[in-house]
Design goal:
Helix content: 40-55%
Strand content: 15-25%
Largest sheet: 4 strands, antiparallel
Radius of gyration: 13 Å
Distance between the termini: 19 Å
Number of helices: 5
Shape: globular
Number of domains: 1
Structural class: alpha+beta
Number of strands: 4
Mean pLDDT: 91
Strand order of the largest sheet: 1-2-3-4
């Protein structure tokens, strides 16, 4: 499900990083920092923006994350799956995937943040 337009999501994510964001963006940022401490500001910006743009559940253990050119994406969407071995994003098998797979990419992080927030609401 798509959320807010890309430009709005990025603007709201930047505001949250400055401490001036709306409540939703601030909650997403807070959860991202808890789940993934010590990341860079630009990494958190991309995660918050992706969460605001929206993630689509394809199956119980698969999600589609829209690609955003202004966040460095080259493809229209990325597929994230939870396997027996852990989290996998198809960006790991594309350009510079070896680098992204060494840590958590922001596609996987967005899914994990949203899942964590959904679990809290239950």
């Amino acid at each position: 499900m798509r959320g807010v337009p890309e430009e709005d999501a990025i603007r709201r994510a930047r505001a949250a990083l400055r401490g001036a964001g709306d409540e939703e963006a601030a909650r997403i940022l807070k959860r991202a920092v808890i789940l993934f401490p010590g990341k860079s500001r630009s990494w958190y910006l991309r995660v918050v923006a992706r969460c605001l743009i929206g993630v689509e559940r394809l199956a119980p253990y698969a999600w589609r994350v829209p690609g955003v050119k202004s966040l460095g994406d080259r493809y229209p969407y990325y597929t994230v799956v939870l396997t027996r071995k852990g989290w996998y994003c198809d960006c790991y098998s594309r350009s510079y995937g070896w680098r992204r797979s060494a840590e958590t990419c922001t596609h996987v992080a967005a899914v994990r943040v949203l899942m964590s927030m959904e679990a809290e609401l239950r």
